[in-house]
Amino acid sequence: MILTKILLEPYNYLLSLPGQKTRSKLIEAFNHWLNAPKDKLFAIAIVVEMLHAAIAHTIFGVPATINCANYVYFLALHEITKFDNPEMHYIYTSKLLNLHHGQGMELYSRDSMTCPSEDEYINMHTDSKGFCEDLTEEKFSFSIMHSIHTGHNNNRLMNILKQYSNSIELKQYAVKIMKENASL
Question: For a disulfide at 116, which of 77, 120, 161, 163, Cβ 3.0-4.6 Å?
Answer without folding.
Answer: 120
